[in-house]
Amino acid sequence: MAAVLFDFSGTLFRVESTESWLRAVLDEAGIALPERELAEKARALEEAGALPGGPPPLRVPEPLAALWAERDRSAELHRAAYTALSRQVPLPDPRLHDALYDRHRTPAAWAPYPDAAEVLRALRERGVGVGVVSNIGWDLRPVFRAHGLDAYVQTYVLSYEHGVQKPDPRLFATACAELGADPREVLMVGDDRHADGGAADLGCAVHFVDHRPAAERPDGLRPVLDLVDRAGGSGG
Fold first, then answer.
1. How far is the C-alpha of 146 from the C-alpha of 132, rounded, in Å?
2. Domains, the chain, ordered by start
3. Which Gene Ontology molecular-function terms are recorded (predicted)?
């Protein structure tokens, strides 16, 4: 196997809880809410799907449906979509909606899965190329650098930088080309069967992991090493 491609959110990293997200922004703004009200606001934001990388919306309002479908094609669309969902929930200061969006782009809002560093390091030691292919509206490279994982990644292919979002096979094709790998010798690892499954249309093998809190998935990535070893190849 020449290379392994990974999704970002729910695969290599997990975003903080909605309550932690809201609490951090309120603290930064110097706004105190009673614990019960804070929990209620966090629950409403979660149901709205306002936290990128968190649970999807229970329902996308009809006026936002088109924007939601295209959200990962550009930074502007991504921010517009998620802040619009956030604004369905009244907050003490309207500026908090943009502050929430800005918070989720910081390394502090993300934690790598417990076995992410081990697996990425092992792949590179085996001579296997590593890429990240993500539907996203912002530059996630600083998150990888802050958590010490950037050294293991050779290429990042991010939807907003290409104007194309998964499952469009062009994103996966770009990653394969940048790694110099034949798609038939590439494994795509992700948590979204629709979006990440698009790699199969290019001829890549696909392996899915569960999008669960990091503490509940301590070794969900380790089977990737078994799959690579069974394939018997390396990037050489």
1. 16
2. 3-14+110-231 (3.40.50.1000), 17-108 (no CATH)
3. hydrolase activity
9 vs 210: CA distance, rounded Å: 11
Phi then psi dihedrals of residue 132, to 5 deg: -115, 125
Q: What are the tens digits of pLDDT across the range 35-48?
A: 999 999 999 999 99
Percentage above 70 pLDDT, the chain: 98
Pairing of strands 186-190, 3-6: parallel
Q: Please, where are the H alpha helices in the chain? A: 18-29, 35-48, 65-69, 75-86, 96-104, 116-125, 141-146, 159-162, 169-179, 223-231
The β-bridge relationship of strands 13-15 and 110-112 is antiparallel
Residue for token digits 């979002």? 165
Q: Which residues of 68-79 are buried (b: 16+ CB within 10 A; e: fewer)?
A: beebbbbeebbb
Closest C-alpha to 18, from 82, 92, 80: 82
**Which helix (DSSP H) or strand (DSSP E) does residue 186 occupy?**
strand 186-190
3-state helix, strand, coil in the chain (%, to 5): 50, 15, 40
The whole model's pTM is what?
0.95
